[in-house]
Request: fold
Amino acid sequence: MRVAVIGAGLGGLLTASLLSESGYTVDVYEKLNFYGGRFTSFEYRGFQISTGALHMIPHGKRGPLGKLLKSVGSDVEIIDSKPEGEILLNDRIEVRSSAFPLKSKFKFFKWLLKYRVLRIDPYMDAYEKELDDVSAGFLRSFLGWSLSISPSQIKFSKLLAIYNRVVECGGPGIPVGGCKAVVDDLVEIIKSNGGSIRLRNPVIRLITNGNTIKKLESQKDVAEYDLFISNLGHKLTGRLAGREYFEHNGCESKGVKYSISISKPFIGNTGVLFPLNCSRISGMNEVTNADPSLAPKGKHLLMAHQPLFTDNIRKEIEEGLKELRTLLRGFDYEIIAVQSFHDDWPVNRIMSGLDRGYKTPFKNLFVVGDGAKGDDIEVDGIALGVAKLLKEKFSEKVPVRVP
Amino acid sequence: MGAKINTKRIIKITDRCVGCAVCMLVCPFDGVDVLGSAEINERCNACMKCLMYCPNSAIEVKEG
Reply:
């Protein structure tokens, strides 16, 4: 069976590698000069600066992506973060149950009961007001860091799904070699199974017959396939097929990433630091504590993430830089890259909780990637979306086991 | 040696730029600055590598 994958981002490559391992013949079409989308990196001044991701996998080796990578035969090493996270207030407090007052924990169980029994499921800003300052601050920072959203943009039930997965799979991990090592490995697997990666070959349109896609027209040729997987999100996929079945302008989550060269470690461990005194910077990591090769000798790569809630990006960056100057006072550092993500190169094509799954109006066209995630964080959400598609549509041929 | 070409007049950053800085990362001449959006600086050699890597097709060659 011949499969065309449109878009060589993580979702496309992951699906392509799993299908190719199970005997499908897979061609991956990519309009850009490189594969990996927002989950790869380029060497810049000796640092591996990513095109989007933070060189981190939200649930490390035990989460959906870690499990799928293992099942596809990838040998990328993932170093689980220890501690998983710390809250920076006046001192640093490790993120664990004891960091939060009993009163707030009771509140959580009260909401859980209200949801389970009465199906009461408000957006989290309604509940945030009931929390103490540390718990509310952590909620805000965690959502900003992991999903680039605010509490007013996520329902309790969706947060609960993420909380349950954190409990089940644990916190983040750092792939050795950064995100590029992951996509490089997936491409190797696809090629070793006879598949191809066609860079600089954008797909122009999908040729349909009723509710079936018949052919794919790319810039270089027209080819027939049995199955089509799109990594472009539903909006762009619909346009390629000539049927705009799902327009979602303004639904993407937006953010800014700062890459910082620093001589001495600021965080000093492999976990996430949540600076609660900041209103813009939601979290930071220092991946060189797990993999020193991501920076030149004698330097660390510190990254900070800022969710964007307004369209005045320059102003937001100025505010973010101000906060970084305060946080890093006394350290020898240089901000080497400021990258913003929105519109068709966003943090997430569809804000978490608004994903519409992998189905399209066409019976042999499915969407994967950050426009069709499962209820989980970033790349683990992507992996969960891929796993769901394979389990529901290809379970006889592709054995997939994810949490 | 001829006079240095004013590359700012050749390379155009359009409003499709989101400021992802892929152009800055791949530029062999350190010819792009990015803060919210990209800006070509005087080190640009008009090698066009940024055009080939821009995820948003936001970099164009000016005509005329």
Notes: The radius of gyration of chain B is 11 Å. Chain B has two helices and four strands. Chain B touches chain A through 17 residues (CB under 8 Å). Residues 31 and 43 of chain B are 5 Å apart (CA to CA).
